[in-house]
Amino acid sequence: MSEWWKEAVVYQIYPRSFYDSNGDGFGDLQGIIQKLDYIKNLGADVIWLCPVFDSPQDDNGYDISDYRNMYEKFGTNEDMFQLIDEVHRRGMKIIMDLVVNHTSDEHIWFVESSKSKDNPYRDYYFWRDPAPDGSEPNNWGSIFSGSAWTFNEKTGQYYLHYFSKKQPDLNWENEAVRREVYDVMRFWMDKGIDGWRMDVIGSISKHVDFPSYETKDSRRYIVGQYHSNGPRLHEFIQEMNREVLSRYDCMTVGEANGSDIEEAKKYTDASRRELNMIFTFEHMDIDTDQHSPNGKWQLKPFDPIALKKTLTRWQTALMNAGWNSLYFENHDQPRVISRWGNDRHLRKQCAKAFATVLHGMKGTPFIYQGEEIGMVNSDFPIEMYDDLEIKNAYRDLVIENKTMSEADFLKAAATKGRDHARTPMQWNAGKHAGFTAGEPWLAVNPRYKEINVKESLNDQDSVFYYYQKLIQLRKQYKIIVYGDYQLLLKENPQIFAYIRTYQGETLLVVVNLSEETAVFDAPAELLGEQWNVLLSNYSRQESDMKSICLQPYEAVMCISSSKETIS
Ligand code: NOJ
């Protein structure tokens, strides 16, 4: 069934790093308004705004202290209402970040909850007695290192937090909590927003008997059956859908940590009335050694075959039931070309190659600010990192537990540290890349003189115009939105190639994901086809794709010319 959110392309904004309109070094809502024409020019239809609500900013706004008001450095509610209007005026839509697995510890609910055991808000969070030896109630770990429990002296109990101790987990078992959340959602949807990205939604239902993970060692566990997909997860989401989502024409994408394909189908099969799509993590974890106690920081080399296999499993499984989101970057996942590609002499080709792989697939593509100009990871000494995840992991793994050498950790942080996605947007070659007239909250990437929006807009061959073209093609060819997917050359270690088929047409996507040339030999079933090249990052024009030698990071997208194209 056709739906606007299936045909849309989303542009994600990390507001504190997007554009600073008032010189305080911190991006803001007025800054976003000033740059809306840029996003419109790119061709995106929907903007996803990372959290802008009031917050002590322990986790950059993913710790909300007031769901109905803006954090003052971002602006006022009037600014937010103006942003919604300005987005709509340009024919675009806007979705916000719903962070309701946890609040800030400075939210009034938690302030009240920690006052006494009989406070009316006590049950808004998870409080448990210490174990008989006084230690934490179980061995669950926090995703930001250390225990998932913090002791509260005043009331003699521990509270649960999957993230930092300033992000206590809400108790969704409590109906009053769920009602509060639905009220907040209605509040913003009545103000005109068009949907939600739902933060760690896969964790809202807990195993309330809080069983410890079985371990052979003393380590705490952060990934496992108890941290996500709890027993009432889908019941809660269906209730949310009934109470709120079904009453609006909206788009929803859940961050579904710990979710496999079966789980994804439950979330996104339209007949179950839950969410439109989820963010899966499997393809982003292909460079992580999952069995290591060092978690995401234990790097594994990038393997294109692993990427093909993982993305293909998801493409195939959700082909006829549910829907995929498509992403390589976001505010937690740094620059893909630095992580898996070449961000130096092949930067532009490489950025276009990864873009082609993703934007040729079935699903709703998400572009993270700066991805469209080929931004790269930065260059930080450890003391310049700002993110609490990196700082805590460094303390835990390098200083306290010594499970990683400093050199290995720094290498991992240079590849996967979240701050690399959070450096200010590079608008021009001027001071601080034109992001701010003041001092930026996080250092601008030193390569801003070479990589910036102004340069991209002046160069007809830029990554920006390539993205613009990819988006235009998606609008023009229904096959890109709705066509079936089939992987080609499964075991080829360099080439990611696939076809899409729809109403008698075939779309062919061929991408060399390596720094060497690679030979593409078309499989037998495609030999009779003649092709129209729709897009290429090396000006390839031939219509015969039987056997071609692909240049490093060369990407080609073409459509069978035997049938009339549908536009
Ligand atoms: C996922 C968000 O994307 C991330 O930035 C945040 O730290 C955690 N959830 C906690 O809210």
From TrEMBL:
The residue ranges of the Glycosyl hydrolase family 13 catalytic domain are 12-422
Q: Is Glycoprotein a UniProt keyword of this protein?
A: no
Q: What is this protein called?
A: oligo-1,6-glucosidase
Task: Output a single Gene Ontology CC term carried by this record.
Answer: cytoplasm
Q: Where are the transmembrane segments?
A: none
Homology family: Belongs to the glycosyl hydrolase 13 family.
Q: By its UniProt entry, which Pfam families does this protein fall under?
A: Alpha-amylase, Malt_amylase_C
Q: Which UniProt keywords apply?
A: Cytoplasm, Glycosidase, Hydrolase
Q: Where is it chiefly localized?
A: cytoplasm
Give the enzyme's main class according to its UniProt record, as a single word: hydrolase
The keyword Hydrolase is assigned to this record: yes
Q: Name one GO biological process term.
A: oligosaccharide catabolic process
GO MF terms, alphabetically ordered: alpha-amylase activity; oligo-1,6-glucosidase activity
Q: Tell me where in or outside the cell this protein is found.
A: Cytoplasm
Reaction(s) catalysed (UniProt annotation)? Hydrolysis of (1->6)-alpha-D-glucosidic linkages in some oligosaccharides produced from starch and glycogen by alpha-amylase, and in isomaltose
